[in-house]
Specification:
The protein has 14 helices and 14 strands. The chain has about 375 residues and is of the alpha/beta class. Strand 13 and strand 14 form a beta hairpin. It is globular.
Length: about 375
């Protein structure tokens, strides 16, 4: 009974009325995501983008006669909860894959469990080193933060910026992001300044005063949409015209909504195509979201989750034993080059990272993300 409660909770939270097969006759995909709390909008967008695509597959009969069932558990953006959720997904729901964890921090305690169980850990929303250097069951969809930061830093150094201040979390992942920037600038004889934040810290006026005291030419942001938006709004209130560039980790649409008019001029790296691009995969995902009942416009988080769901579905089609975890893992290892419809990934034995795609986009005055 408990097992079925978890399954129905995950499905009904996202797409009420979706046709779902019983767990023993389905591809059960497990996910821990922040559906509530300060990063709840980001987590819900990840869930909904994937659910929409899986629903479209199920409407066509599923894969090898089995429906895909996404079981999403709320972790509230808490690492320990994400680890506990992972245990439930692996042992209670018998997940054949874990998918779309919302950050490297939320993945840290989950990846070893997936490795021990021999279960694919696919498409975490992070390009951080702990994920890139994870166990062999970890496969990523997106480019690394190093790829993102190098493109971002090349732009700003080319524009003549000298004092770069990195805003990062004061934890393992945040410090590694700072390290990537430091190493890049070191090659040019430069050293960045840094400003660290505790996760879930409310941004106060004193934080912004301390940040401005570092005299940044540009702020390199590696924290979530909430604190990034608060910094932007407080800078705007002080008429402090300091440009900000953010990793894709910020969640572009979530940041834009939270920052409002203060978002204008900020640049954000993107690891999937623009949601308004004229590409087959963009049209396919927009259609799937619309058919699932989504009324808001598709954003880059929806799109990345949808693309990830499509790649995972393709691996299911290649699995020699439908619904079996180790067979699915082997299929992903040998998937090779796969064009999702304008966004290409490539996986092979020893090649677990599917893409290096990075674009820089800027927030316009009308709140749109433009390349």
């Amino acid at each position: 009974m408990k097992k079925h409660m978890w399954q129905w909770a995950g499905v009904m939270a996202g797409l009420a009325g979706a046709q779902v097969a019983l767990a023993q006759d389905a591809w059960v995909v497990g996910q821990s995501a922040p559906l509530t709390g300060s990063n709840g909008a980001f987590g819900r967008d990840i869930r909904d983008g994937a659910l929409a695509y899986f629903k479209s597959v199920n409407a066509r009969g599923g894969v090898a006669g089995k429906h895909i069932e996404l079981v999403t558990l709320d972790d509230g953006n808490d690492r320990k909860t994400a680890g506990a959720n992972t245990q439930k997904l692996l042992t209670g729901s018998n997940a054949v894959a874990l998918f779309g964890y919302a950050s490297a921090t939320l993945s840290l305690d989950a990846m070893p469990q997936a490795d021990k169980a021999g279960v694919l850990f696919f498409a975490p929303f992070s390009g951080a080193n702990p994920v890139r250097q994870g166990p062999p069951v970890v496969f990523t969809l997106r480019a690394s933060y190093a790829d993102e930061l190098e493109k971002m830093l090349a732009f700003w150094t080319g524009a003549g910026a000298k004092q770069m201040v990195v805003v990062h979390y004061d934890d393992e992942v945040g410090k590694q992001n700072l390290g990537v920037v430091t190493e890049y600038l070191k090659k040019q004889g430069k050293t960045p300044a840094s400003y660290s934040l505790q996760r879930n810290t409310k941004i106060e006026a004193a934080h912004v005063t301390q940040l401005l005291a570092l005299k940044p030419d540009v702020i390199i942001n590696t924290v979530l949409s909430g604190p990034a938006a608060d910094i932007s709004k407080q800078l705007a209130a002080r008429s402090a015209m300091v440009p900000m560039s953010s990793l894709s980790f910020v969640g572009a649409q979530q940041y834009i909504q939270a920052a409002g008019e203060a978002a204008a001029g900020a640049s954000i790296s993107q690891v999937v195509p623009n949601p308004n691009a004229r590409l087959p995969i963009v049209a396919e995902c927009a259609r799937a979201l619309q058919e699932s009942g989504m009324t808001q416009a598709m954003n880059s988080t929806h799109l990345e989750a949808c693309i990830g769901a499509k790649v995972l579905t393709e691996a299911m089609r290649h699995a020699k034993k439908p619904g079996e975890a180790r067979s699915l893992l082997a299929a992903m290892q040998n998937l090779g080059r796969y064009d999702t419809g304008g966004f290409v990934v490539n996986y092979a034995p020893g090649q677990n990272h599917g893409s290096k795609f990075v674009e820089l986009a800027m927030v316009s005055r009308d709140g749109k993300l433009r390349n």
